[in-house]
Amino acid sequence: MKLKVVSFKACPFVQRVLIVLECKRIKYDVEYIDLAAPPDWFLAISPLKKVPLLIVGEDVIFESNVINEYIEERYDNKMHPDSLIKKAQNRSWIEFGSSVSMCTFRLTILQDKSKFIVELEELSNYFNQIEKVLVNEPFFNGSSLSLVDATYAPAFQRIDFIEQIYGSIYDKKRHRKVINWKNRLLDLEPLRKSTVPNIKELYYQLLWTRQGHISHFLDEETFGNRGPQSVY
Amino acid sequence: MKLKVVSFKACPFVQRVLIVLECKRIKYDVEYIDLAAPPDWFLAISPLKKVPLLIVGEDVIFESNVINEYIEERYDNKMHPDSLIKKAQNRSWIEFGSSVSMCTFRLTILQDKSKFIVELEELSNYFNQIEKVLVNEPFFNGSSLSLVDATYAPAFQRIDFIEQIYGSIYDKKRHRKVINWKNRLLDLEPLRKSTVPNIKELYYQLLWTRQGHISHFLDEETFGNRGPQSVY
Questions:
Q1: Across the interface, which of A63, A73, A74 has its CB nearest the CB of B92?
Q2: A96: Cβ contacts below 8 Å, ≥ 6 apart
Q3: In the prediction, which pLDDT does A227 show?
Q4: pLDDT band at residue B58, thresholds of 50, 70 and 90?
Q5: Do the Cβ atoms of A88 and B65 come within 8 Å?
């Protein structure tokens, strides 16, 4: 029974799942929907109106981290540590990754410059925390990829896109290990395969639609007139 | 090695963990802290400055759902279903429970009446979704308690406290199964043991401190003058 992932093309949470599927070399189909105009069949099976969904035969699983835990339990090539306590700590930092992702999301919708700056400081504080726990390399647990790596990579990719138009976001002195880690994650083949090829252009288009402060760092001529603000 | 839970007395997320510990009859200690003035040792080990923390010897685990998964994996009296797909779906609804909890939290801090009403409608929509999946009784999976039950019980308890001062929040026709479920959860001995005995008074005191719209349904004479708004 082939797995099916319901996706929105630029969604970082879907990517978390696709990275794990790629790492484990599991075959899957992706069905893209438009979250700005979601189809009825999607609304009927997605209680939070969010992607990803994983469809397994007649069954639906929602929430990216839950889907990843299911894939981890069902398939080989284990990505969680064996030790129960280390596994739990990995999961704690996966939850922390949700705060990083939400922060990264807010950076794209905040319209007020001062609020944008405060959010950048929050992100920097998160990096300070992560810096303290990054004792292994090249990845979170050392040489092999984990669900923690799959969780953070899509957020790092978006922060990278933001940096390309805004300028440096990491602190080269304080976030040395974080920078090394994210560079390794951004180079991963599973990360490349977890997105559509034009993800960067799609992401900038999304920033333009969201019309946050950050969108003023995009070239107005490329994106046309500003419409009403929308998340999708 | 006895488990230690770091708690804030009125915290619903800590309760999720204590309910599971009670259900599994595991011995534990609780250390209460004041989140309005958190001690340095706590800030050093809690990356999100939140409770609960589970301390296992030298190790720290954070995030209530992660802690519950650890307890589930390490100890007997299993609360997750055996089936991987049902287990994943339980976890999906645990994540959904976080949205319900956040909604319940926002009901306590929103100052604007119209925003409070909109939040109540959001909560009602969540109940509509839960009503659809409640096919078993008395609990989420049927006769035995699960991590899903442990996740929702503290939120239901708070909604109950709010109802006692505000009036009905559930829709008796649309939320029939939800109402039955929450009534069963509110009767549980592990729920009672998961809080301090004066939880209701503490909760109302917290509402007063948060000074949201809902605090106007409390008797002003009992709580004294209103200070600056604070979450804790």
A1: A63
A2: A126, A129, A130, B47, B48, B62, B63
A3: 84
A4: very high
A5: no
d(CA B218, CA B58): 43
Place of tokens 């500003």: A226
Tokens of B152: 């929702």
Q: What is the pLDDT of residue A129?
A: 97
Domain with CATH 1.20.1050.10 in chain B: 84-193
The answer for B8, left when phi > 0, alpha when psi is -120 to 50, beta otherwise, is beta
Strand order in the sheet with A53-56: A28-32, A3-7, A53-56, A59-62
- CATH architecture for segment(s) A3-74: 3-Layer(aba) Sandwich (3.40)
The CATH class, in words, for B84-193 is: mainly alpha
Residues of chain A with CATH 3.40.30.10: 3-74
- Chain A CB within 8 Å of residue B58 CB: no
Whether A11 is catalytic: yes
User: How far is it, in rounded angstroms, from Cα A75 to Cα A57?
Assistant: 16
Average pLDDT over residues B113-141: 97
Band of residue B228 on the pLDDT scale cut at 50, 70, 90: confident
Phi then psi for residue B44, to 5 deg, are -70, -25
CB contact under 8 Å between A47 and B85, yes or no, is no
Count other C-beta atoms under 10 Å from residue B188's C-beta. 18
Distance from CA of B217 to the nearest CA of A (A): 31
For residue A103, what are its two tokens?
A: 């922060």
Given this model, what pLDDT does residue A122 score?
98
Please give the helix or strand (H or E) that residue B206 lies within, else none: helix B199-210
Report yes or no: B207 and B108 within 8 Å, Cβ to Cβ: yes
What percent of chain A lies above the pLDDT cut of 90?
A: 96
Phi, psi for residue B136 in degrees, rounded to 5: -105, 165
Looking at residue A194, what is its pLDDT? 98
Q: What is the DSSP string of B126-164?
A: HHHHHHHH--SSSSSSSSS--HHHHHHHHHHHHHHHHHH
Tens of pLDDT, residue by residue over B167-225, are: 999 999 999 999 999 999 999 999 999 999 999 999 999 999 999 999 999 998 899 88
Please give the DSSP secondary-structure letter assigned to residue A231.
-
In chain A, which residues have pLDDT < 50? Answer: none
Q: Is A129 exposed, middle or buried (0-12, 13-18, 19+ CB in 10 A)?
A: middle
